[in-house]
Specification:
single chain, mainly alpha, binds fe (ii) ion, 170 residues, 77% helix, Ferritin
């Protein structure tokens, strides 16, 4: 692999770990807010982001390149209303989508076909991530952000299933 392509993949590994960190911080905040369903949902999301990081990590290893881990920024999570968290999550996922697309542009430019194939999975995954966050924001707007509506949504968020095992996700 070309050195600057490896560097770009390493950058994406950091982005995915940073995503995990952000969602884990949101999970902690939701626990404090007595919203166990949203806390569980965010914890699950944090777990999925770790799998994303490891997909890129393993890809480099398999290509004979060494992953280089860099510092992860401290997550700034200071929301007061649940909807703010999901709005931030959506904005963050849009940022990640842009990163994935930029990486894909680079893979095409450098004719790294294996990286392009790996990125097809991530391109689809980002459509899902944005769709999911948008859906939760819509539910919160519709069903109300307090009282019974919020109670129902929190219960629903708590029913989120674990991410499929590594083999199934590919
Ligand atoms: Fe991700
Ligand atoms: Fe994500």
């Amino acid at each position: 692999m070309k050195a600057h392509v490896i560097e770009a993949v390493n950058g994406q590994i950091r982005e995915e770990f940073e995503s995990s960190y952000i969602y884990l911080a949101m999970s902690a905040r939701f626990t404090t807010m007595n919203l166990p369903g949203a806390a569980a949902w965010m914890r699950q999301q944090a777990q999925e982001e770790l799998l994303h990081a490891m997909k890129f990590f393993d890809f480099l290893v398999r290509r004979g390149a060494e992953p280089r881990l860099s510092a992860i920024a401290q997550p700034v999570v200071t929301f007061e209303r649940p909807i703010e968290a999901f709005e931030k999550a959506l904005a963050h996922e849009r940022h990640i989508t842009a990163c994935i697309h930029a990486l894909y542009d680079l893979a095409q430019k450098e004719r790294d076909y294996a990286l392009q194939t790996l990125l097809h999975w991530f391109i689809d995954e980002q459509v899902e991530e944005e769709e999911t966050a948008t859906g939760i924001i819509d539910s919160l707007r519709l069903a109300g952000e307090t009282g019974q509506g919020l109670f129902m949504i929190d219960r629903e968020l708590g029913q989120r299933q674990a991410a499929p095992a590594e083999g199934e996700a590919e």
